[in-house]
Amino acid sequence: MTEAEQLTQLCERLGAPRAQAETMAAQLAKRATQLAEERGLRREVALARLLEAVVKGRAGEAPNGSPSKPPA
């Protein structure tokens, strides 16, 4: 299974319809590459941080321990 397929499957498990999950997976992969280049990280580390933020966001938690604000 490719990385794109794995990311798509994860996004689907988090509740996204297939088409949206494919778009989200592509965006996550692209952003991971950008973060790795910008911050001098390994791409795997950048992707892991993004996935952690996605999962926490889906659970209603603030990423990186920052305080969350309730919706206005």
Q: What would the keywords be for this entry?
A:
single chain; 72 residues; mainly alpha; 3 helices; 68% helix; flat
Spell out the blueprint of helices and strands:
Layout: H1 3-13, H2 18-39, H3 43-58
Can you give me a brief rundown of this structure?
By secondary structure, this protein is mostly helical.
What does this entry look like structurally?
There is one protein chain. With 72 residues, the chain is mainly alpha-helical. It has one domain. 68% of the residues lie in helices and 0% in strands. Helix 2 packs across helix 3. The longest helix is centred in the middle third of the chain and has 22 residues. It is flat, with a radius of gyration of 13 Å.
Identify low-pLDDT runs. none
In sequence order, what are the helices and strands, one letter per element? HHH
- In total, how many beta strands? 0
- Determine the strand fraction and express it as a percent band: under 5%
Number of domains: 1
Helical content band: 55-70%
Quaternary state reads single chain
**Number of helical runs?**
3
Q: Report the mean per-residue pLDDT as an integer.
A: 90
User: Termini separation (Å)?
Assistant: 41 Å
The major sheet is characterized as: none
What is the overall silhouette?
flat
Class of secondary structure makeup: mainly alpha
C-alpha-based Rg, rounded: 13 Å
